[in-house]
């Protein structure tokens, strides 16, 4: 979890990006979570925050709200200048960016960030609730398991994990190669029980990966061509139907396709590859989202909610 300063910096960035005009300092102090105490103390805090953001490469533009009058200057971040273009990156660097991206996306949805943008609107400041803050190249986050799998490939050690497919079961695998295909991470390896080379999607791994056995326990086949095993991304996905309250769960909306509008709620169809990840995401959104289909997942979600309520 981010500390208070990190959270305040993210909230400040969101506010300056969301505002459609320059924000004065007193408006920032009134709308951005994390600023409190005496005015002089908040002003020192704000000056440090500006310096920190600029050191991170986030350019804060200073300008006059009304050019006809000499007034307190305002601040904002121009979205077009904030967009990232990433150079060629190593798998480790991509994994780190993905972790940071997850923190950023969670922060956009955090109550303090959402209430901050609403405060801007309540102060009469036009603000964009629907920020397009996605990094140009977004990668699924495979977690820390990707490093463990990489070491297992290097040491030629067998691994074991629970895998969700048509039947969820434990798999023992000789790992050969990690692949990034159409924004998703895959492991290419030999399924020991089937004695067949298969592609395993990291998003379908339920729980953590475990190493088993000794090193140098297998050989990677010579001339192995990963392209022969790459999937069609569309054919892998399943569909879920969800109900989302009007104006809420913005990032979940972007992942889906609007089917119908019922006034207070919108019905979306969302593609997913992991049932557990879908349930986790819906639970995270709380009462903003209701799972309608598939029925077996809806029943599983209801069971989870009953267990949570009894704890």
Question: How is this structure best described in words?
Answer:
This protein is an alpha+beta fold. The chain has three domains: 4-122, Orthogonal Bundle (Arc Repressor Mutant, subunit A), CATH 1.10.10; 145-234, SH3 type barrels (Roll); 237-310, no CATH class. The protein is 39% helix and 24% strand. The protein is built from eleven helices and eleven strands. The protein has helices at 4-18, 25-31, 39-55, 79-82, 91-109, 111-122, 145-155, 233-236, 250-255, 275-285, 295-310, and strands spanning 61-63, 74-76, 158-163, 169-181, 184-191, 196-201, 205-212, 238-245, 256-261, 265-272, 289-293. The strands form three sheets. A five-stranded antiparallel sheet has the order 6-5-4-3-7. A hairpin with a 3-residue loop joins β9 (256-261) and β10. α1 (4-18) runs parallel beside α6 (111-122) and α2 crosses α6. The longest helix has 19 residues, at 91-109. The chain is extended and about 75 Å long. The two termini are 23 Å apart.
The gist of it:
This protein is α+β, with helices and mostly antiparallel strands. It has helices at 4-18, 25-31, 39-55, 79-82, 91-109, 111-122, 145-155, 233-236, 250-255, 275-285, 295-310, and strands spanning 61-63, 74-76, 158-163, 169-181, 184-191, 196-201, 205-212, 238-245, 256-261, 265-272, 289-293.
Which descriptor suits the 3D outline? extended
Assigned CATH class of the largest domain: Mainly Alpha
- Identify the strand order in the major beta sheet: 6-5-4-3-7
* Strand/helix succession: HHHEEHHHHEEEEEHEHEEHEH
Tell me the distance between the termini: 23 Å
């Amino acid at each position: 979890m981010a500390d208070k300063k990190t959270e305040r910096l993210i909230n400040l960035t969101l506010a300056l990006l969301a505002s459609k005009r320059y924000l004065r300092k007193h408006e920032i102090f009134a709308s951005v979570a994390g600023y409190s105490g005496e005015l002089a103390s908040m002003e020192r805090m704000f000056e440090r925050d500006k310096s920190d953001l600029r050191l991170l490469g986030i350019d804060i533009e200073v300008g006059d709200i009304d050019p006809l009058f000499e007034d307190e200057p305002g601040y904002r971040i121009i979205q077009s200048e904030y967009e990232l273009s990433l150079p060629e990156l190593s798998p480790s660097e991509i994994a780190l960016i993905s972790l940071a991206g997850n923190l950023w996306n969670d922060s956009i949805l955090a109550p303090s960030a959402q209430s901050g943008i609403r405060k801007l609107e309540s102060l009469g400041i036009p603000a964009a609730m629907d920020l397009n803050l996605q990094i140009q190249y977004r990668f699924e986050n495979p977690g820390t398991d990707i490093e463990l799998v990489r070491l297992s490939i290097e040491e030629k050690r067998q691994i074991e994990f629970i895998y969700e497919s048509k039947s969820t079961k434990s798999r023992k695998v000789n790992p050969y190669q990690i692949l990034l295909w159409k924004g998703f991470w895959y492991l290419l390896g030999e399924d020991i029980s089937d004695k067949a080379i298969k592609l395993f999607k990291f998003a379908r791994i339920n729980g953590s990966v475990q190493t088993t056995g000794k090193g140098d326990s297998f050989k990677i086949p010579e001339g192995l061509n990963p392209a022969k095993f790459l999937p069609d991304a569309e054919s892998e996905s399943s569909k879920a139907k969800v109900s989302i309250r009007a104006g809420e769960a913005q990032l979940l909306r972007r992942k889906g396709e609007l089917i119908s509008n019922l006034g207070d709620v919108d019905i979306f169809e969302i593609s997913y590859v992991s049932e557990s990840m879908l349930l986790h995401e819906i639970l995270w959104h709380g009462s903003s989202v209701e799972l309608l289909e598939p029925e077996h997942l809806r029943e599983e979600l209801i069971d989870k909610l009953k267990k949570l309520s009894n704890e």
